[in-house]
Amino acid sequence: MSETLANLLQENRRFEPPAALAEAANVKADAYTEADADRLEFWATQARRLDWTKPWDRILDWDNPPFAKWFVGGELNVAYNCLDRHVAAGNGDKVAIHWEGEPGDTRTLTYADLHKLTCQAANALTDLGVRAGDRVAIYLPMIPEAAVAMLACARIGATHSVVFGGFSVDALAGRIQDASAKVVITADGGYRRGKPSALKPTVDEAVAQSPTIEHVLVVRRTGEDVAWSDKDHWWHETVETAGEQHEAQPFDAEHPLFILYTSGTTAKPKGILHTTGGYLTQASYTQHAVFDLKPETDVYWCTADIGWVTGHSYIVYGPLSNGATQVMYEGTPDTPHKGRFWDIVDKYGVTILYTAPTLIRTMMKWGDEFPAAANLSSLRVLGSVGEPINPEAWMWYRKNIGHDNTPVVDTWWQTETGAIMISPLPGVTATKPGSAMRPLPGISADVVDDEGNSVPNGGGGFLVLREPWPSMLRTIWGDDQRFVDTYWSRFQGMYFAGDGAKKDDDGDLWLLGRVDDVMLVSGHNISTTEVESALVSHPSVAEAAVVGATDPTTGQAIVAFTIPRGSVDSEGDAGEALIKELRDHVAKTLGPIAKPRQIMLVPELPKTRSGKIMRRLLRDVAERRSLGDVTTLQDSTVMDLISDGMKSAKSDDE
Ligand code: WT7
Question: 590 CB less than 6 Å from ligand 1?
């Protein structure tokens, strides 16, 4: 029998939801029963959590797959749902955003403040000639104006395309041109690592290559000198002087809300298109269900950047549609010191924290003393997103951040899915460290083999989605064929996510990384994630990245790049001994088939700006190193190879 993806890692730890949280949870176990009984009616119920100016005629039109229409004929305004209705309900004075700049400056914006600014920005954009259906590029640091800019676009029906502020001129210009954007909203710069980091010069260069841009709106954040052209307008002279009255117009449920480009590692970035009613329904419901968000009492903080889909769905649309109070932070986690995040949790009394495994592993590497120095007792739900979370990183998160009694929700989703798809529910699910557990109510996820047959419990294969969901991408901007080819052609009638996954003996789901990264070792398909998790389960290891390199005997061989924990002696002979111990540890944990051929000890790993490991680059390095080499921390040649690779990758998006 040929395995699709080996199932090597066993995990037996379980954590029941805390009784008090379960008792008071927003969503209980009956949600699954309800959704199983009538999936579409379940989503209609969630859509009714929003205010619609015109009800829909039909919940789902799936007559022409894979082109879906949700809540057909319905009309609503996204900004109205995120702002006006909370003000109208008497919550205008409630804090929407506690903003903290990297230098330590702060701003507090109530729902009334955010509403006023958004109305002004909507009027200013209208004055600049922006109309419903036009595209607006947003290239901003993590300042409240980023949320305002997005909401102002939504309010007037303009489609926003947020471009991450760390991206290059080429990446920005490519995205502006692909969407034929009319306006760019940017800033002079933002603060990163203790100093101003300019944005405007990048925009100037990108705009020079982009004839569709008519106007550039510039927020003054750092006060540094900027070049100025007749297309440029200061935000404070344009938006902040505009009229404060603006009536939100309703838009069709399928009106394009935003485009967000995913950086394909090789090909041209894909402009993922999301629309209005279905997107907001699922972003809003999942915020309520997965984080158990109580708008009256919780203080929520998502550490993502607005440039990623996590920032769209879980900083802007999810929290604000629910009337949440949240923290927004501008800068890096180690400025001015490695405890900055925990100081912020302490200062604002954050109750729900949503962050990424890369950050959790970095914090593990820095050491337990940083979280221990802050009061984290306010936290009650912890979330993770972006990559598979290794069981030991999950345990570290729960123990050191969640004082050993806080549920950890590992949430699987993608830019394409728009909102969370697979996750525990904090008041219902008994979690397992490293597992995203079950599809949410109303979501049909499965793991299939090469032929598209559902694998039995204990089996591994490809993650698919069998039924359409409200916040699904509608197409790739300007390229329906690529949309069909990329996501809907691998398996008949199913959405192909591109991730490997397995079902454990209970049928719970474990994500195993991108299928492109799977290693073929002596005829066995082994996931990089499982070998990485085995390495991270050794007490001397903080982080690990694993790739397959060509091998004359086994086809591919496993090569691991490993960062030792801060306190571990890994120089010279001690390093060689550690490498031997780690190879044996993996063989013992996963079986001899998974024993790495080579382990290199490194101080850093190459990552994209969204924190994902650049495995393509590591594969190149692994291929170029000869077999016999032992690489301990004293040996800098591997790091030289990595940084050369990073330099040549710099002109790419990531
Ligand atoms: C890819 C999507 C979803 C917002 C941020 C990333 C990986 C995401 C998990 C998770 C294992 C995960 C997958 C997915 N991923 N969350 N909880 N466990 N893997 O969005 O940049 O579109 O990336 O991130 O590989 O396909 P994205």
Answer: no
